[in-house]
Design the sequence.
């Protein structure tokens, strides 16, 4: 709960910090207004950490650049056309933007930039009331024309103007509502929710890159599930990631299976908790979180109702990996993230064969080889995928995975498992067989790798003997 007295004290400390006071003096001396705006003000009132300092002013970009140059070590004006100048002041990065009065064309969502002269007018055009507050400096006056403090007290997200108008100006704000709901643990005002559902199709005019960026920010939240539920309930998720709402399978009265949607959200929560336990000082693992959310998206298209009430989802892991690749490419994710997520989805069922019967050393080596750099994430995802309420079954699966991790560690110590290479490299294979580069070398390499996986380290002499034996029989 927001304590206003403590919040005001934190605002004062923010205004008196070296970076803010340096800029406040410089703008005041030049005869211009300056205010800290948006997230830093909100977070100071809520006693939340903030990483960025955003300012707004009635100074135009050329004036901003002239004022900040003497008090900063670096300046950049890549956002000059939109009124934004960046600078590094006392080692801290800041952005200063001229008061804005944007209007949008309603088709491409590209703003027509109009500079304003009034702070209240600038604030009213922002996305939510809790982000539409400013602290004038050096006077330390809180400006709140749309009731942001009241909404902070009520832990509520509401648009400064009519929600349909605000979202019509920029449909991406609907995704921001889900993100802030998760980050701040706030509820969304009913009229705002209604507008999100009504205007969901307007998201089509927003670029995939911007949607992807907002999705990633949501997945960074401590509890992204709150925002995901909001996007699914308003049907917004269907506009850019329809595989998630499709997890809400219809349940036939004669066939019984888990609620795949709820299961996926639980797996996501458990993966986040396990990742924090294992890597408490690391930032949120976005590929892991996305894989946890999407790991079962192949189930709807592979579901088969069996006689007697059973339900199967054969090969949903392979189907799901392909679906995730296609969707993430459409959202312009980078290749490394796409590959990580697809690999995790493809392998997320592999362990359950181990739980049914102990694997040979060869099977463990192949598990490590196939997971490659995703092994640690696969450990977490596989453990998180256990959501059964049957305590005996959950305990059995946990013990089995403890065992496989122990065996991986032991084999790694004995055999340098992480490197997972044959005893002979490509150059040596060519020398032994008297051949040049080509397909035969690749086949020979794979033969030796299979030996390595099946039997462990052979040594160069034995590997050479087995290679020649294979080559002779092949010829």
Sequence:
């Amino acid at each position: 709960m927001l304590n206003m007295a403590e919040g005001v004290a934190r605002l004062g400390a923010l205004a008196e910090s070296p970076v803010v006071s340096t800029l406040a003096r410089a703008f005041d001396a030049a005869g211009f207004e300056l205010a800290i705006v948006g997230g830093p003000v909100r977070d100071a009132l809520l006693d939340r950490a903030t990483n960025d300092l955003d300012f707004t002013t009635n100074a135009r970009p050329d004036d901003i650049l002239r004022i900040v140059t003497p008090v900063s070590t670096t300046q950049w004006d890549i956002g000059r056309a939109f009124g934004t100048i960046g600078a590094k002041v006392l080692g801290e990065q800041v952005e200063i933007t001229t008061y804005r009065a944007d209007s949008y064309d309603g088709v491409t969502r590209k703003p027509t930039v109009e500079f304003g002269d009034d702070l209240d007018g600038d604030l009213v055009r922002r996305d939510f009331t809790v982000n539409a507050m400013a602290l004038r400096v050096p006077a330390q006056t809180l400006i709140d024309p749309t009731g942001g403090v009241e909404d902070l007290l009520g832990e509520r997200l509401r648009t400064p103007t009519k929600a349909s108008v605000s979202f019509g100006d920029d449909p991406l704000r609907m995704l921001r509502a889900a993100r802030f709901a998760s980050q701040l643990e706030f509820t969304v005002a009913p009229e705002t929710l209604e507008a999100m559902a009504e205007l969901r199709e307007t998201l089509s005019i927003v670029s995939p890159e911007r949607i992807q960026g907002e999705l990633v920010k949501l997945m960074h939240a401590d509890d992204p599930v709150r925002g995901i539920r909001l996007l699914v309930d308003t049907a917004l998720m269907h506009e850019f990631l329809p595989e998630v709402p499709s997890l809400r399978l219809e349940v036939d009265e004669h066939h019984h299976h888990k609620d795949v949607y709820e299961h996926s959200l639980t797996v996501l929560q458990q993966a986040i908790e396990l990742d924090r336990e294992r890597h408490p000082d690391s930032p949120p693992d976005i590929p892991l979180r996305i894989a946890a959310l999407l790991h079962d998206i192949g189930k709807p298209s592979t579901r088969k109702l069996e006689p007697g009430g059973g339900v199967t989802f054969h090969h949903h892991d392979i189907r799901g990996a392909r679906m995730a690749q296609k969707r993430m490419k459409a959202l312009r994710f980078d290749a490394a993230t796409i590959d990580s997520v697809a690999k995790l989805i493809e392998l997320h069922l592999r362990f359950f064969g181990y739980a049914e019967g102990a694997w040979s050393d060869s099977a463990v080596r192949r598990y490590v080889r196939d997971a490659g750099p995703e092994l640690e994430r696969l450990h977490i995802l596989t453990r998180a995928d256990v959501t059964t309420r049957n305590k005996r079954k959950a305990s059995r699966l946990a013990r089995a995975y403890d065992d496989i991790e122990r065996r991986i560690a032991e084999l790694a110590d004995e055999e340098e498992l992480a490197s997972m290479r044959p005893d002979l490299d490509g150059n040596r294979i060519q020398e032994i067989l008297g051949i040049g580069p080509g397909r035969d070398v690749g086949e020979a390499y794979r033969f030796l790798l299979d030996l390595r996986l099946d039997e462990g380290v052979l040594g160069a002499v034995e590997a050479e003997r087995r290679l020649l034996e294979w080559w002779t029989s092949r010829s």
